[in-house]
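Below is how a single chain appears once it has passed through the pipeline. First comes the sequence as given, then the structure the pipeline wrote out for it. We keep one example in the README because the format questions we get most often are answered faster by looking than by reading.
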Amino acid sequence: MPTTPTSSSPWLDDERKIDAPPPGTRLLVLSDQYLSFVKDQVELLAPHFSQVTVIVRHNPVTEISRVVPVHSLAPYRRDTLVDLRSVPANVRVLYAPALFLPYDADNRRQGDRLLGSVRRVIRSEKIEFDLVHAHFVWPNGHVAVRLGEEHGVPVVVTAHGYDIYDLPYRDAAWRALIADTVREADRVIAVSERTRRCAAEIAPGVEPVVIPNGYRPDLFRPMDMAGCRERLGLPPDRRIVLTAGGFVPEKGQQYLVEAAADPAVQGLDLCWVLMGMGRLHDELVRRITRLGLERRFVLPGWADHAEMPLWMNACDLFAFPSISESFGVVQVEAMACGRPVVATCNGGSEEIVNDPGVGMLVPPGDATALAGAIRSALARDWDDEVIRAHAARYQWQVVIEVILSVYREVLSGTSLKEHRREPRVRGSG
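Resulting structure:
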């Protein structure tokens, strides 16, 4: 059953004055990608800075997927990590090459390895900056706090998900690495209340601020369903259930496939769209084939961010079967198009699907419950105005104002760590 919201927008309860950084301020952003929520955030922040430089971590090994069909590597190639369309004139996007293997021990060495690569990019490109914002505590947050020490600038780190609710709980070594970064950042942003609790637990005394990811209302808005389906080549007369996310176990697409074979949804003539790519692609295809559902499923790969509203408006229902999630902005994007959401109690969705007028929640990893909720949701007459109003609190224009207030706070020096309190001469690099 849907939960009852405790506050309409708890992350907006802060009464700090909203103010932009001083004129001429230069921002350095460290990220694993320049897509969706990072791209949107940066490009809406850009007018408030004289220069924004984004450095994206990139593993050169992934480029072999251009010639060898390795589904696990394709999402991490340069051409899939970065979207350079409509980038503002004062934003530069660069790559920091960092070789790594998909093993836990090697991942722990990524912090200092990436630091060396980012230092080289900064030197070769003569990058100057007054503030660093890292997306994901590891390894980008680790790199950010080291750069903050070296350059005497404030550091903001955003904890997004696995970096805060997974890595520090693997073993003591991971916990120490993540806790050190959380403690040493001047301000920690958590994208959800769950993420905030995890950060506060591993680094007692730290008080993260909750600022969720947002959506662009100019992109994610109601559109004609029939027209969207025609443009995408989707069936005009079938009910469509859409999900979107990387094909990894945590996203739970395997349970959605199982739900499609459940008796609860038989006879509904549904079209199921699994949008994404990743290492579970072949396994999902085999599962679909084994269940005899080939004609019911569409796997279109990834859609461009600008094309996602077409898919959202083409569907009747958005499903989000994740096992574990920190936030899940795609749910908000679907709601902004007026679509109800059936999600799991995965740690993040409870904060979004928290009103019975916008969707339903079921236990994670339960295909039967998922199928039942999908059937019930498709039988219900939803009020798209109510759903869109619920999503509106997450519009980027609203979220950006809160992020700017955090920037202003750390740039003023009121929350700087002791080793960065000495004023820095602008232009010292």
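Residues 179 and 208 are 13 Å apart (CA to CA).

See the next section for the split statistics.
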